[in-house]
Amino acid sequence: MKTFRNLINGKYVTSLSGETFPDFNPANTDDILGHFQSSGREDADNACLAASKAFERWKDYPWVKKSRILRNTMNILERRRDELVYVLTKEQGRPLKESLAEVDRTIDVIDFYTGEVRRNQGWVMPSERPHTVAFTRRRPMGVFGVISPWNFRWLCRLGRSYRP
């Protein structure tokens, strides 16, 4: 059984607690998909610190390089599309058709942002002071975190097939 680790600062690491938990296929709870890190606040703090340090380099990358990185990411997702659909279905217990739609939507969103990153222009506007022009420009704001509920999965676990 595979034990998955956290990806922090480009390295796969175990959680500070050293504890893991099993993740089950909600459509077949006899099917253990793997063991995952039981991460806490300090693990999250370490990830945020690493991301903040990486942001200092990323924010000054030329837009052409950012666009290329996003395009490469999109190409990887396209190549691994069928595999991702299967893994998503197994991990969340959702129908293949819904997993396919989610993977395709992700690819489409990344495709959109490969072009959006090129729209880095600012705005020029008049100033209240004579012989002065006000200029704004778009700049990355920084690191943020998202805790996303996997509602579909939890709804499946409330069904009759769920066995704790």
Spatial arrangement of strands, main beta sheet: 1-2
Spell out the helices and strands N to C.
EEEEHHHHEEH
User: How would the global form be characterised?
Assistant: extended
Classify the beta-strand content into a percent band: 15-25%
pLDDT averaged residue by residue: 85
Straight-line N-to-C gap: 19 Å
Helix content estimate:
40-55%
- Number of helix segments? 5
**Largest sheet, if any?**
2 strands, antiparallel
Number of strands: 6
The radius of gyration is: 21 Å
Poorly predicted runs of 5 or more residues: 153-164
Helix and strand content put the structural class at alpha+beta
What would you note in describing this structure?
This protein has helices at 41-58, 63-79, 81-92, 96-116, 151-157; strands at 6-8, 11-13, 20-25, 28-37, 123-126, 133-136. It is extended and about 75 Å long. The strands form 3 sheets. It has a two-stranded antiparallel sheet. Strands 3-4 form a two-stranded antiparallel ribbon. It has a two-stranded antiparallel ribbon with strand order 5-6. The longest helix has 21 residues, at 96-116. Helix content is 46%, strand content 18%. Helix 2 (63-79) packs antiparallel against helix 4 and helix 3 (81-92) packs across helix 4 (96-116). It is built from 5 helices and 6 strands, in the order ββββααααββα. A hairpin with a 2-residue loop joins strand 3 (20-25) and strand 4. The chain is α+β, with helices and mostly antiparallel strands and 164 residues long.
